[in-house]
Amino acid sequence: MDGFPPGQFFTTSASLVDCVDKKLVVVLRDGRKLFGVLRSYDQFANLVLQDTVERIYAGNIYAQEPRGIYVIRGENVVLLGEVCLEIEDETPLRLTSMEEVLQAQKREREARLQRDKRRDRALHALGFSVDFAETDLY
C-alpha cells in the first residue's frame, strides 16, 4: 500500500486507490461474480467496472456473459479482490457454454436437495426438528 505509513491499514474506500486500473473480481450479495477493470469508485465504495463479464460456475466448468460498463452500489459488495492475470490463465476450470453450465447447476441443485432430504429424515428420526423455510438458512 504505497503512501500509507507502515503497519497502518485502511478499511475505508481509500484503500481502493491501489486497485484502480486493475482487473478485479467482485462478489455481490446475490451471489453473482463479476470480473472487470476498476475505473472509478467513491467514498461509499460504489464501483465502476469496465469490460465486465459475469461468470457462472458449476463444478469445474464456468461460462461468462459480457456485461460491459457496470456500476455497482457499494452496499451490495461482499468481496472484492485483485485478479492475478498469470494465475487466472492457469486455472483448472474449463470455459464452456452457458447452457452446459446451467444444466450442471440444475443437476447440482437436485443432488443437494436429495442430500438435504436424506439428512432431514435422519435428523427427524433422531428427534430433531427440521422445520424451516429457505429464508431461515441465511
Number of strands: 6
Q: What low-confidence regions span 5 or more consecutive residues with pLDDT below 50? A: none
Given the structure, what is the number of helices? 2
Read across the widest sheet, the strand sequence of neighbours is 5-1-2-3-4-6
What's the main sheet like? 6 strands, mixed
What is the CATH class of the largest domain?
Answer: Mainly Beta
Mean residue pLDDT: 86
Tally the structural domains: 2
The whole-angstrom Rg is 20 Å
Approximately how much beta-strand content do the residues carry? 25-35%
Specify the oligomeric state. single chain
User: Can you tell me the CATH architecture of the largest domain?
Assistant: Roll
Q: Share of helix among residues?
A: 10-25%
What's the overall geometry? Answer: extended
How would you describe this structure to a colleague?
The protein starts with 22 loop residues before the first strand and ends in a 13-residue tail after the last helix. The protein has 138 residues and is of the alpha+beta class. Strands 5-1-2-3-4-6 form a six-stranded mixed beta sheet. It has helices at 85-89, 98-125; strands at 23-28, 33-41, 47-58, 61-72, 77-82, 94-95. The protein has two domains: 1-96, SH3 type barrels; 97-138. The model has no long low-confidence stretch (mean pLDDT 86). The chain is built from two helices and six strands, in the order E-E-E-E-E-H-E-H. 24% of the residues lie in helices and 34% in strands. Plays a role in the degradation of histone mRNAs, the only eukaryotic mRNAs that are not polyadenylated. Probably also part of an LSm subunits-containing complex involved in the general process of mRNA degradation. It is found in: Cytoplasm; Cytoplasm, P-body. It comes from Thamnocephalis sphaerospora.
